[in-house]
Amino acid sequence: MQTWDDADGLFRRILRSGRLLGFPSHPRRLDIVLAVAAGGLVRRHPYAEKEVNELLIDWLASVRARIDHVTLRRRMVDCGFLKRTRDGSRYLLNYGRVAGVLGDPAPRIDAGEILASVLAERASRKLAYSRGGMHTAR
């Protein structure tokens, strides 16, 4: 189980480029990303594929991701964060899997807000550097 600080720190690192470039290769980090992406889904609510896609598209846009929603949805199913009904017509959030990664109750982590903070910090550093003037070589 991770803490909110662990998830916040991870997202600050993986979003330092200004976008989510891909999935982390480390399994625990991947789990955090998928658990946070699942944060917009409601427990015990059966979702049509179109509904899941819309939620994931919005989440991916919030982190300016280079990953498409289909890849994210499939990875969430493969890693157990989403379950499909037997006939494949509906998806359900596997809250137990999310809680196993983020804790119970699972905190709502806004990755888009973290990205905005990372970008604001970067802009602030650039401004401070530019106000200090360009350093010339001697």
SSE arrangement:
Layout: H1 4-14, H2 27-37, E1 47-48, H3 49-62, H4 69-78, E2 82-84, E3 90-93, H5 95-102, H6 111-131
Antiparallel strand pairs: 1-3, 2-3
Helix pairs in contact: 2-5, 3-4
Write a concise keyword list for the protein shown above.
mainly alpha, 138 residues, 7% strand
Shape call: elongated
Query: What is the domain total for the residues?
Result: 1
Work out the oligomeric state of the chains in this entry: single chain
Radius of gyration: 18 Å
Q: Indicate the percent of residues in helices.
A: 40-55%
Overall strand count:
3
Strand numbers in spatial order across the main sheet:
1-3-2
> What is the distance, rounded to the nearest whole angstrom, between the alpha carbons of the first and last residues?
52 Å
Total of DSSP H or I helical runs spanning 4+ residues: 6
User: Structural class of the secondary structure composition?
Assistant: mainly alpha
Low confidence ranges: none
Largest sheet: 3 strands, antiparallel
| H/E element order | HHEHHEEHH
Strand content: 5-15%
Q: Quick check: average pLDDT?
A: 89
